[in-house]
Automatic annotation (TrEMBL):
Name of this protein: Luciferase domain-containing protein
Superkingdom classification of source: Eukaryota
Alphabetized Pfam families for the sequence: Luciferase
Compositionally biased tracts (Pro residues): 41-52
Region of interest (Disordered), residue spans: 34-81
Residue span, Luciferase domain: 258-335
InterPro entries: Luciferase, Luciferase_dom
Length: 347
């Protein structure tokens, strides 16, 4: 091949090799083209290993199964290529089950809350309607009253007093000669064990005021037997206590740390009072009272700390609604003073 550049003659020789052909190209001014064919040398065939006579003679020789490649498998049974394994997420059955259970639990909790929330709210309002008592008049007090409910017991049977009368011989009644007018029906009571309160048949304002005045006068008329002091059980009221210096049997003196009675003056004007077992029976049978649901359970004092046990003789007396009922309730309180001071001269 001849090329002229700037009047000069250039002679080149080019050799191109293309397997399996080898092409020799000589080009010069007036030259000729030569082609030659170069065939690759044949590759030697691999030699097969000589047969193993020992294997041929071994009747227990095992035959290996032929290897099945992906190309031999049906299309629907072939594993996905590595790239698809990376792109396509695998299914995690455990995670799906956990998520399903969590969703079900959340739905159930939501449904239960929707059903119970109105009941809880109404129950809390009922607790607040009792007015202040020995427990806090707030959510904390409501929680205490709710948690204490399983410890409540039956409140109307006179069997505990029959046992006391038979066992201890306490047959004396301090209501002897008193005519207890039978109450037509018992009032509705709150289900909370503390504070123990009526939900119906409240005393009128006039009757409540007369009851409080009579309670105060009883302490003033019997200073040798009683005194007024903050109640151990009612944080917002004074209680009637055994006066200092009164000699009592040790067991009776320890009852409620000497507290005899107190009035629930903030709401229904009902009364709690300690009575002799025989008088407890009379009050119950006349329909004028009931036991505290926590009788026999140790309770913390509202003031001063310490723990004491509510005795079965700690009786809830229903609020009076008439002048006649007011006289009857004051007679019951006087009977409690006589029992706790072991005195027959209570004015």
């Amino acid at each position: 091949m001849a090329m002229e550049m700037c009047g000069a003659s250039i002679s080149t020789t080019t050799r191109c090799t293309v397997s399996p052909l080898v092409i020799s190209h000589e080009a010069a001014l007036g030259g000729s083209l030569h082609l030659s064919l170069s065939l690759p040398s044949p590759r030697p065939h691999p030699q097969k290993p000589p047969p193993n006579n020992n294997n041929n003679n071994n009747n227990n020789s095992t035959k290996t199964d032929p290897i099945i490649t992906n190309h031999a498998l049906p299309l629907n049974n072939r594993p996905p290529p590595p790239l698809l394994k990376t792109i396509l997420p695998t299914t995690n059955t455990t995670s799906h089950t956990h998520l399903a259970l969590t969703a079900t639990a959340a739905t159930a909790i939501t449904a239960i809350t929707a059903l119970l929330l109105p009941r809880i709210h109404n129950d809390y309002l009922t607790y607040l309607s009792y007015g202040p008592g020995g427990t806090p008049h707030n959510v904390l007090g409501w929680l205490i009253a709710t948690l204490a409910r399983p410890f409540g017991s039956e409140m109307l049977s006179t069997e505990p007093y029959d046992r006391r009368i038979l066992a201890d011989g306490e047959t004396k009644s301090y209501l002897a000669g008193k005519d207890l007018i039978r109450r037509q029906e018992r009032p509705a009571m709150g289900w909370h064990v503390v504070p123990q309160r009526q939900l119906s048949d409240f005393a009128s304002g006039n009757i409540r005021e007369k009851l409080i005045n009579g309670f105060t006068a009883l302490a003033a008329q019997n200073p040798h037997l009683t005194k007024l002091a903050p109640s151990n059980l009612e944080a917002h009221a004074d209680g009637l206590f055994v006066a200092d210096g009164v000699v009592l049997p040790s067991a009776r003196k320890q009852l409620l740390k000497g507290e005899i009675a107190h009035i629930h003056r903030m709401k229904d004007a009902s009364v709690h009072v300690l009575l002799a077992p025989a008088d407890c029976k009379k009050v119950f049978e006349a329909g004028w009272g009931q036991r505290h649901p926590l009788s026999g359970v140790g309770l913390p004092q509202a003031l001063g700390g310490g723990v004491f046990v509510l005795p079965a003789e700690y009786v809830f007396v229903y609020a009076p609604r008439t002048g006649e009922g007011l006289v009857l309730v004051m007679d019951i309180v006087r009977a409690g003073v006589a029992y706790m001071t072991n005195s027959n001269e209570v004015h």
